[in-house]
Amino acid sequence: MGVVRVGTASWANRRQLASGWYPRSVRTPAGRLAHYASRFDLVEADTGHYAIPAPEITAAWAAATPPGFTFDVKAFGLLTGHPTSLAALPADLRPAGADLTTPLRRGDLPIEAVEELWLRLHQALDPLEDAGRLGAVLLSFPGWLAYGPAARRRVLDTIERCAPRPPAVELRHPSWFEGARAAETLLMLHDAGAALVCVSDVHGLAVTAEPAIVRLEDPAKPEHGAGERDERPDEPRLADWAARLRHLAADADELHLLVDTRNAHRDAERLVELLAERPLRSGLRAV
Question: What domains are there in the chain, each with its CATH number?
Answer without folding.
Answer: 3-216+242-276 (3.20.20.410)
